[in-house]
Amino acid sequence: MNKVRAKINEKQQRVLNVYFTAGHPTLDSIPSIAEGLQEAGADLIELGMPYSDPLADGLTIQKSSEVALKNGMNLKHLFDQVKQATASIEIPIILMGYYNQLIQFGMDRFLDMATTAGVSGLIIPDLPMFEYEAKFQKSFEDRNLGMSFLISPMTSDERILQAGRLSSGFLYMVSQSSITGKTQDISQEQHAYFDKVNNMGIESPRLIGFGIHNNETFETACKYSNGAIVGSSFIRALEKDASKAGIKTFVSSILNG
Amino acid sequence: MSEVKTSIETDLVSLKHPDERGYYGEFGGAYIPEMLFANVEQLRLIYQEVIDDPAFQAEYKSLLRDFVGRPSPLYLAKRLSEIYCTNIWLKREDLNHTGAHKINNTVGQILIAKRLGKKRIIAETGAGQHGVATATVCALMGLECFVYMGAVDIERQAPNVARMNMLGATVIPAESGSKTLKDATNEAIRDWINNAETTHYIIGSAIGPHPYPDMVTQLQAIVSEEIAYQLTAQTGKEYPDYVVACVGGGSNAAGAFYHFLDDKRVKLILAEAAGKGIDSGHSAATSILGSKGIIHGCMTLLMQDPDGQIIEPYSLSAGLDYPGIGPLHAHLITTGRAKVYAATDDEAMQAVFELSKVEGIIPALETAHALAILSRIGAGKDDHVVVSLSGRGDKDLNTYMNYENIKDQVH
Question: Which domain holds residue A131?
């Protein structure tokens, strides 16, 4: 079993997955932020591979990606930093990036370097499920990498089941039909959607992301899933204070209010 | 118009349509975040049925005739022909309502959007021609319209911004990246993710996730349909020897080529924007500088670095200032079916002034790239060369008047 799934299975409830962009706020900040997150009580780390054209991301993550690229972040440097980080932490690191980045780097080369660096899982929001299944599923399984697919409130039941079946890490439930970084409350319609997915008999654990930005939204998400993913609000917090104390304050505000 | 099969059509696979999943050879497909899947799938399931529906065709064709002013003339440019020692026919898309070929596609897509029950329309625009064409059909149909346009382009295409405002559209500046067409497209896609249920996205180029490249191509195909019968009526010849079109994303070239794609007697020529020169670091010559990858939801050729980061292109012409090319075009180029030439800003500007003085037609800067390569394509004195005169130059007057001052600047 891959490390992402194992971690969620072990904890079962209130899993906190925190996203940040590699190379932001500074080029070499990955290891210290990762350590800070583990010490503060995060269960999983989702590390964004900064991209010039991040279609699914709102302004906060776009800006952090721009800063990271200006700082000189690239995939080779990212893997070096991740290797340093995984030497000192035990919680799993998941890489999130766009398919074109992996294609240009070379899929096999990418998966090999990710494995060597100690990466435990991947999220590639624009990789079609059929293409993953036909071309890459075996490579992921051979390397023990957990894959996570996204579903949204507009996803058909058939696709939800397919995403559930192919998600060897966790099923990523996008809370609302939007890009990242929205901070509205979670509506009744969203509750109905979470309930529906939970009653579909999907084996894969589920985490809710997009719009989770404080203790209230975290608690709501945890009622309907194994846990939640926090992204844009952490980026904003890092911009103010990227020290371990600052990270601890932020994570505590999500977990405890 | 019925399609006449000729003995020249020996290939089993027609180039006119992608396969089931939207691939032209190795290019195309749909690489989109899940939040867009339902919308794109809804469109994929109905677009062909709608386009083939006689009621749709009747409404589309009647709007093209009475609102757009089609058919556009196919005009023999005698003095230009003398200069280039061949027979140059100008397909006058510049005479369409709103001044470019873009309106053919927006008329079709607004009718599709109405069938989908969408109330809100979004679009991206570079030169502003697609934005104006979208704002126009939204005014015609009484639908709400939001146009994303790069902040740089808003500045260099001010007359079109004013037009869109007058037509009731809201122009939203794209402030990310290079602040040009690529970024406007990103912003439009993000808007669509946020407003998926209410909104239809009218993409203006033959780019984007399947079914967009095929849908836009079919809605622009009226251009080559007319070229075919107009040329026959005027010359007795049933096919041109060359069809020449400029290419940014590719809707103009797709429309001008469509009915000739499977007829190998017709040489298909694309003109890309070399900007300040292909190797200058300030260029938009995608097929030469680009490699295979994903941009705006499709697998195609694009300008990118070894890490897959998309490179910001440069062209003085806002409509060609785009780092990708449609998947159909990528397929035509890599298989050798179409040939590409690149024209620099300077060469395009010379072509603008030449056509203006020699034929009394001021072309759009984008279009001028197609005129600028005419000496290089190898056409003989008996050949018939059709050039898609895709747009008129009114929107570029400011650039034309100030070129001597601005030519050393790069945005």
Answer: 13-251
